[in-house]
Amino acid sequence: MLSDKYGARWVSAIGFMICTPATTLLLLVTDKTIPQIVLFCALLTIDGFAFVMMISLLAADLTAAVIAMEKEHPGILGKSGAYAQVYALFTCAIGAGFLAGPAWVSFAYSRVGWTFMVCTLGALSASAIAPVVSQCILNLIGAAKANGVGALYWN
Questions:
Q1: Burial class (CB in 10 A: 0-12, 13-18, 19+), 119
Q2: CA-wise closest residue to 15 among 43, 58, 49, 40
Q3: CA-to-CA distance for 77 and 129, rounded, in angstroms?
Q4: Whether 74 contacts 68, CB under 8 Å
Q5: What does pTM read for this prediction?
Q6: SS3 at position 32
Q7: How far apart are CA 17 and CA 146, in angstroms?
Q8: Neighbours of 136 (CB within 10 A)
Q9: Which of 40, 50, 88, 91 is the most buried (most CB within 10 A)?
Q10: Secondary structure (DSSP) of 39-58
Q11: How far apart are CA 136 and CA 147, in angstroms?
């Protein structure tokens, strides 16, 4: 798998990078003809694959975060750890997104229109790229410094 070779965060960043243009290209869908419906379905399929690249790998990364916290501060998460708490919070965040997303789309589409709604969704997707990529780069810098590799170039 790509995430085993390059890490979950990089694959997740690629997912955001795929999702942003696919979502923004929904602007090309303007009427209900067969070619437009095919384009709409293709772009939503790409968005679906990108969503899987983003979310499932970040969910798997939660376990590594809990392990790292426990190693750094033994016992901080209690006797049984915090796996259930972490996944419960993650599920709540996903649920909030699944609630807020359709509410925003309905509001934006009914008040302003298709173009504004699609642009805001594309901007929302694009806004997630920088934090994910910056975290990936910080992890690379930290790994390079820890291994003494390229320390001269990272300072």
A1: middle
A2: 49
A3: 30
A4: no
A5: 0.77
A6: coil
A7: 29
A8: 18
A9: 50
A10: HHHHHHHHHHHHHHHHHHHH
A11: 17
Q: Within 10 Å of residue 85's Cβ, how many Cβ atoms? A: 13
In a 13 Å sphere around the CA of 141, the CA atoms on its Cβ side amount to: 10
Residue 4, token pair as written in the block: 């085993």
Residue type, 16: F
In which residue are the tokens 């869908």 written? 29
For CA atoms 141, 146, 148, 149, the dihedral sign is: negative
Model pLDDT for residues 29-59, shown as the tens digit of each residue: 999 999 999 999 999 999 999 998 888 777 7
Hunting for tokens 């798997």 — which residue is that?
Answer: 60
CA pair distance 103, 105, nearest whole angstrom: 6
pLDDT score of 5 more than 90: no
* Token pair recorded at residue 32: 């209900």
pLDDT tens per residue, range 93-149: 999 999 999 999 999 999 999 999 999 999 999 998 998 888 888 878 877 776 665
Q: How far apart are CA 33 and CA 23, in angstroms?
A: 19
153 — pLDDT class (breaks 50, 70, 90)? very low
